[in-house]
Amino acid sequence: MSRTALLVMDVQPAVVARYPDPGYLPRLRTAVDVARTAALPVIFVGVGFRAGAPEVDPANRMFGGLAGRDLPATGTEFHPAVSPLPTEPVVTKRRVSAFAGSDLDLLLRAQRIDHLVLAGIATSGVVLSTVRQAADLDYRLTVLADACLDNDPAVHEVLVGKVFPTQADVTATDTWSRRPV
């Protein structure tokens, strides 16, 4: 029997602020509410580093600017519109994919979860990287196209319309809400 979980990825205040779309958080909130009502696990994944980001190589194109800087530890704060309940797991990842440098795979397998429903920011970042890695790890996948967001609408459309369907079912939150399993 398949067990499904919703992954809410990189919906952290600093990330949300860089992707202005007033309709995004309400759509994502709908997905979270539907999953909770259906008693599906909701797992929050955020990018984060130890204080000073010692795990970041300065050569890393995405995160290299953080290396060695006097930064506080990060990774567990989420936008208040979709923040985790005290009983919901929070996973801190160290790179783009939700699996990179995290214990996500261990958490999912321990709960016998084999179907992931993906939502998050950005479509061309965490969602793309997680789709690819999760497919390689043999998870069944659903991407909630309107619960993903990217600064480039054309890139978002290519990913949800052409790339993701090769490894995942792609649907809208309203459609998924009718049968969230």
Task: Give an account of the 3D structure.
The chain contains 6 helices and 6 strands, in the order E-H-H-E-E-H-E-H-E-H-E-H. With 181 residues, the chain is of the alpha/beta class. It has one domain (4-46, 75-178): Isochorismatase-like (Rossmann fold, 3-Layer(aba) Sandwich). The protein has a 6-stranded parallel sheet, sandwiched between helices. Strand 5, helix 5 and strand 6 (169-171) form a beta-alpha-beta unit. The longest helix is centred in the first third of the chain and has 14 residues, at 24-37. The protein is globular and about 45 Å long. The chain starts with a strand and ends with a helix. 38% of the residues are buried.
Total separate domains: 1
* CATH fold-level name: Rossmann fold
- So how many helices? 6
Largest sheet: spatial strand order: 3-2-1-4-5-6
What is the compact description of this entry?
The chain is an alpha/beta fold.
Salient structural properties:
181 residues, alpha/beta, Rossmann fold, six-stranded parallel β-sheet, 6 helices, 6 strands, 31% helix, globular
